[in-house]
Amino acid sequence: MDCTGCGTCVKYCPVEYPDPFNQNISKNKAVHVYFSQAIPLVAYIDETCLYLKEKKCLVCESVCQADAIRLNQSPEKVQLNVGAVILSSGIKPFNPAVRSEYHYGVFENVVTSMDYERLLSSTGPYQGEVLRTSDQKHPKKIAWIQCVGSRRVTPEENSYCSGVCCTYTQKQVILTKDHEPDTECTIFHNDIRAYGKDFERYFQRAEALPGVRFLRTYPTIVREIEGSKDVVIRYATTDDGVKEETFDMVVLSVGLNPPLNNKELADRFGITLNHHGFNQTIDENPMLTSRPGVFASGAFQGPTDIPESVFTASAAGSQCGTLLDYRRGDLAIERVYPEERDLAKQAPRIGVFVCHCGANISSVVSVPSSVEYSLSLPNVVYAQEQLFSCATNSAQEITDKIQEKKLNRVVIAACSPRTLEPLFRDTLREAGINPYYLEMANIREHCSWVHSKQKEEATAKAKDIIRMSVARANYLAPLKEFDLPVHKDALVVGGGLAGMTCALSIAAQGHTVHLVEKSDALGGMARRIHSTLEGMDVKAHLDGLIRDVYQNPQIYVYHNADILDVAGYVGNFVTTVKSDKGKQEIPHGAAIIAIGADVYTPTEYLYGQDDRVMTHLEMGERIAAGDEKLLAADHVVMIQCVGCRNTDRNYCSRVCCGHSIKNALKLKAAKPEMDIDILFRDVRTYGFREDYYREAADKGVRFIRWTPEDKPEVEAGVNEEGREVIKVTVTDPVLGQRLELSADILALAAAMIPAESTNEIAGLYKVTLSPDGFYKEAHVKLRPVEFATDGVYLCGTAHYPKHIQETINQAYGAAGRVLTLLSHETVVASGAVCEVTDENCISCGACITACTYDAISFRETPMGRKAWVNPVLCKGDGLCNAKCPTNAIVLKHFTNEALQGQIDATVIGPSILEQIDAAAMEAAMETH
After folding, report:
1. pLDDT tens-digit profile of 340-361?
2. Do residues 577 and 558 make contact, with C-beta atoms less than 8 angstroms apart?
3. Which CATH number is 833-891's, of 1.20.1440.230, 3.30.950.10, 3.30.70.20, 3.30.450.40?
4. Please, what is the Cα angle at 389 between 386 and 395, to 5 degrees?
């Protein structure tokens, strides 16, 4: 289960022998990585293994970075006493071999999306080349078939939508075109479910690539052509009828099954599963299971994408923290580092470690050659290659070599410092040297990934990058980080469902929470929603939350509040609020932005001109109120995607399809004979919501697709009986005809849009926005509830439109991240900050204007008024440094000397200035 299929074990296995059955690797050894249609790519050890035969050799176990090989391990039963359990057992990809019509495992060039993922990977069976299993040739024409194992009620398949397949297929198409630009890619699909943040743009990017077709149809794999092993697919079109087309390779976009041992797991922990085999979710708190103290996160709640998995993991951790708060800190062990050695007066002794990154770098860049070149550079006394520099054993190796070789500078030639620089700095601390003696040379993103077809040139460029990094490393100096005290209060901006959920979770773990709400009542947008598609009583839940907030002595609520000013930094913010309690300065250690979203007010389809036209949210309110006119209607029409998925708002509002189907089912329950038509572009009822889509269709709700090029038309009129109706005209692409629908009621699925105060709050807390105007998280997958601004977090629809259960998940997830901060007594501030040399400062104020963090101000000194940088607020972005006309500001760790040394090392031989002068002289002579 832990094997990643990287092939490292194969590379280092000393046993070689001829194996006629293994045709998918270049060498036949005792350990194989099989590319099989039937199972994911995994390592397999056969009977020729020296350890299995003679108890000799553990090479494969020692080099495995995933700790997936344990040859000498015997079964061991361990008893653990714990106060809580989190079930994160994940998913199992659907195996299409259970259905004969997919021909998986029968036709050689029919593969699953998981197989194809391995083909694309640089650590895959062909080192990142997409080759056919049958003949190891590049496929020039590839088909993807969507919804394999999902959205089907046939035996062995799943009725739900797996939610991730549309987007991962688009990713594979984009990567395929990057590998082989001439490849023809065809995607056979039903609905395109690009419902996530930035997913719509990603779909458009894939769709716009040359040679890419998205065909909305249900295909059938017909036969394999003898000899060529090509695959024939039959499918229907609206224009040309049934067609057959031949492809070099067919990729089955498989869905997600519950984990194989789900029933055993449920029995062992005494929890209930739903009929799909996942945890029986409790809508009011999706982390809960049917047994107290046992929580669920990630895909065990149901098929989900990576960001949701990450913040539900944090959310489950927050729930455990509430349960076990009385034990907090009892089991913590403080990490002790060796005393830092003073190296300031030593001459540079630089060590260079060049990473293979599996094969991400080494498949393009010659790592041995780069290591050899590094040893020729000034002050480099040691260099070596590593398979994965970020692996635990490699980090320990770096620590050991620093001590053994007496290194006082380290260059890691690997990936971007954005992700792993903190890890490598910690590695230096473990060796007893200052962490700022680290320099990272990015030879992956800046080299191997962008020059995958130019191996010689990429190797030369990697050497250039390493040379420049070594030159900069010569100028590195030790810097001191400093501890800042953490204020234990939190401030939540927004008193809606997300804000209240987050506030209660933080307060439950002993922290005071200041809940700031702009209106005179708590609840936000959820006050207008009475139930969910799944049947959750939103009003009852909301009433309970509001009661709990007001009754909690740890939570202070501020109504009719305006935020006037925000000052401070992570762990020590001060927010000035004017509210029903007057004007107050509120100190707090963390801030959570949960201001929600607004609903687009339509300007189309007679909205605001005819009271029979309403938004889907207004329709839900009228259904809950028992509106007689609505419930007595004979014909209701709903139009989806009103105000979004267009040039003004190029995103999907995510919740509208589910809301419309909920309204349709409620209307059908009240009046079964009512005619209901839903005019859609793509029905995006992902996850278990697919079952409700099917239920609506079974109950007679008609779904008619429309396209942006041929939008529905709406006008007031009379029907054949002379009754006043709303006439809705739409083209049915299946019938190829214009339909005229006579509606008594028209509902518009209006888009969710950023809240009116979004920009103002963003400016106060110095956080950024996405292209669509919602808040932009620090990292879409790895840090989905945090901002790049330390100490500020987000949750709810302020981040992006989402359903209520998802909002609750993210609110608890944000609380979990906040509690990680507030549970510490101090936070560490970076040493890479700016500093003013008073003698050179002319008090012009250019730096103050440039700084976006308000970190610079004037202060009086014996030399007069001079600029001063608050190191706590400074983010080290260097804007002030670049603006200063007298070079009075020094950016530590990025000094002029270090950068100039790096620039000078860009070229070998005469300096850049000498080359420029020579070129200018040559040009002048040619002119004359």
Report:
1. 999 988 999 999 999 998 778 9
2. yes
3. 3.30.70.20
4. 110
